Amino acid sequence: MDKSFKYSVNLSFEEIKLPAFQDILVLAKNSPHGVIGISKSFELLAPNGFEIIKIEHDKVEALLVNKRILTKISSERILKILKEKVFNFISEGEILKVDFKVIVSCVIE
Description:
4-stranded antiparallel sheet; single chain
């Protein structure tokens, strides 16, 4: 080993839950895994945990949405929000993880 080199290692780790995302996955068109591959993987990792929403969009082929979120907000509303805020940032073949927290509040008088 050459003694003129110094090596430094930065190491960190954290526990993950499978699947490795909890909220929404956005699949761009021409994703290497494809909707079928991703859906089969998620059915094995989290049976009945996610809903696949196929969409018509220039850049995006489908969404995988945690069913817990769908009990609080409609898929139509989610799609509208993602179209406005996320879809313009996705590239062909990419898969995006979206942290999508829903807080429900109400005033009772």
